[in-house]
Amino acid sequence: MVPANLSGATRLVPILAHPVDHVRAPRIYNPAFAAAGLDWCLVPMGVHPGDFAATVAQLARVDNLQGLNLTIPHKAAAHALCARLGPEARRTGVVNTMRIDADGQWSGESFDGVGFVDAARAHGVLRTDRPVVLVGAGGAGTAIAFALAAAGVRELHIVNREAERAQQLCTELRKAYPDIHADTSAGSLGRAGLAINATSLGLHAGDPMPFDPAQLPADAALFDIIAARDTELMAACAARGLRVVGGKPMIDHQVAAQIAFWRGAAA
Predict the structure, then answer these.
(1) What integer pLDDT is reported at residue 109 of this predicted model?
(2) What are the catalytic residues?
(3) In Å, how far are 23, 25, 83, 158, 264 from 204, measured between CA atoms?
(4) Rounded distance, CA 25 to CA 172, Å?
């Protein structure tokens, strides 16, 4: 969705991704900007990881740039480019929101975690008395894992295609939250109160499902953070009668915080 009043006065917020064809964020952000009375426009940009640092440096020279939104696979690389980091970015090592400050340096923060937890609470699927299984330990998965621990989850099982990354994330979580039980056991799906898809699987029709939904208990819930489309995993879980939440609520719950950050508020 392109704002009807787009002009040279419009402030731009590029969302950088690779690939970029799945990005539907303008449908959420641009109406939110308009509702807040802001002449801003979110624009998807496909940026190869090898070109990311150079692209960000050039974007810093755009006069009407308001800030950047980062998605797969740029969140860790964005963290490395920020001179100043908010508390979530420092804790997780990932950034999904950047702005240029008056001194020309980038500030960055991660709002994925707070967006996820707030959405999970609003939809009644966050239970701290049951195990949570998180599939995917990339930028969004990392932010979600730390937010879950901060929200009181005490049993978290992390599954990732690269097992070493899942192990590393568990170690980081236990260091920050000594009371949490965090491991990489995929077998815990059978006891899960909440299963989370934080992978990119489901962005496109025909993607394999990140796990077998038949393994989940009948009283479990699924939160699939894919916002571009309703995934096959969501359909399979809904067919079993499980509670299902898609990715849009997670974005809805972080937009206001991102807008405040882009306007210069402390993270």
Answers:
(1) 97
(2) 75
(3) 11, 15, 35, 23, 35
(4) 30
- β-bridge pairing 106-109 and 97-100: antiparallel
Three-point CA angle 156, 97, 93, nearest 5° = 45
- Helices 26-35/248-262 angle, 10° precision: 50
In sequence order, what are the beta bridge partners of 98?
68, 108
Q: What is the mean pLDDT of the chain?
A: 95
Predicted pLDDT of residue 265: 81
Matching residue, tokens 């939104």: 69
DSSP-derived secondary structure letter, 107: E
User: Is the confidence at residue 199, as pLDDT, over 90?
Assistant: yes
Which ranges of the chain would DSSP assign to H, the alpha helix?
26-35, 52-59, 75-81, 87-92, 112-122, 139-150, 163-176, 232-239, 248-262
CA distance 203 to 24: 11
| 202 touches 224 (CB < 8 A) | yes
Band the pLDDT of 2: cuts 50, 70, 90.
low
The residues, any chain, with a CB within 8 Å of residue 242's CB and separated by 6 or more, are 213, 216, 218, 220, 221, 222
Phi–psi pair at 154, nearest 5 degrees: -115, -5
